[in-house]
Amino acid sequence: MTAISLNHVDIAYDGQRVVHDASFEVATGESFALVGESGSGKSTVLKAIAGLAPEWSGRIEVLGQPGSHRPDRTLARHCQMVFQDPYGSLHPRKTVDAVLSEPLAIHRIGGQDARVEQALADVGLDRRFRFRYPHQLSGGQRQRVAIARALMLEPQVMLLDEPTSALDVSVQAEILNLLKRLRRERGLTYLMVTHNLPVVSFLCERMAVMNKGRIVEIAPATALHDGAFRDPYTQKLYAASGGA
């Protein structure tokens, strides 16, 4: 079964097209990466899937439902996004409790106390963190809270926009291990944006390589071990990462 499907999708900002004819599918339970240099259009694709990029054409489907040009409550129940900057994505004047409770309130889901404490435990934070503010947390702790917030509605699909790039190297490994465990335990589907090829090798089965707004190659993550890429740009990216 297909969790995410893009078919000939063009995306624009202020009438300027930045993604051209993007097509790929992510199977249910798969971890799939969009890779490429900064400005290649990776995050824009994620935003369009999440309903955060209003100017797009083509066809987007998430769990069989057509994509939206604006944030959609029904989509939010099944598909959540984790952003790159864990400080910027959390309201500075809201406690962790308020951040995690908000999705429950919006969707009128009960059992708030138990759900918040369980979500914190699931991402490796104890109850002491519940009433702290973002500035009282480390970068890694903030990203754990951001992941917990994304899990509050028990989604099936997670969109991960460079979820470790703003963190120290040692903390990156902790967050990647957390994401791997959560996917295994919950049967999640991941679509991850990253420029870090070792992250793809660790967390993903397949990858789509983007260059100047176009997908130039879709390859198995095993190609990162043997260099079996066809497109010259992908080969260059692979060599620059130390893979060849």
TrEMBL record:
Name of a matching Pfam family: ABC_tran
Catalyzed reactions: glutathione(out) + ATP + H2O = glutathione(in) + ADP + phosphate + H(+)
Cellular component annotations (GO), alphabetically ordered: plasma membrane
Annotated TM spans: none
Annotated GO biological process: transmembrane transport
Keywords: ATP-binding, Cell inner membrane, Cell membrane, Membrane, Nucleotide-binding, Translocase, Transport
Annotated InterPro entries: AAA+_ATPase, ABC_transp_ATP-bind, ABC_transporter-like_ATP-bd, ABC_transporter-like_CS, P-loop_NTPase
Coarse class of the protein's main subcellular location: membrane
First-level EC class: translocase
Subunit structure, as described in the record: The complex is composed of two ATP-binding proteins (GsiA), two transmembrane proteins (GsiC and GsiD) and a solute-binding protein (GsiB).
UniProt family annotation: Belongs to the ABC transporter superfamily. Glutathione importer (TC 3.A.1.5.11) family.
Role noted for this protein: Part of the ABC transporter complex GsiABCD involved in glutathione import. Responsible for energy coupling to the transport system.
Protein's recorded name: Glutathione import ATP-binding protein GsiA
Organism, scientific name: Rhodophyticola porphyridii
Taxonomy of the source species: Bacteria, Pseudomonadati, Pseudomonadota, Alphaproteobacteria, Rhodobacterales
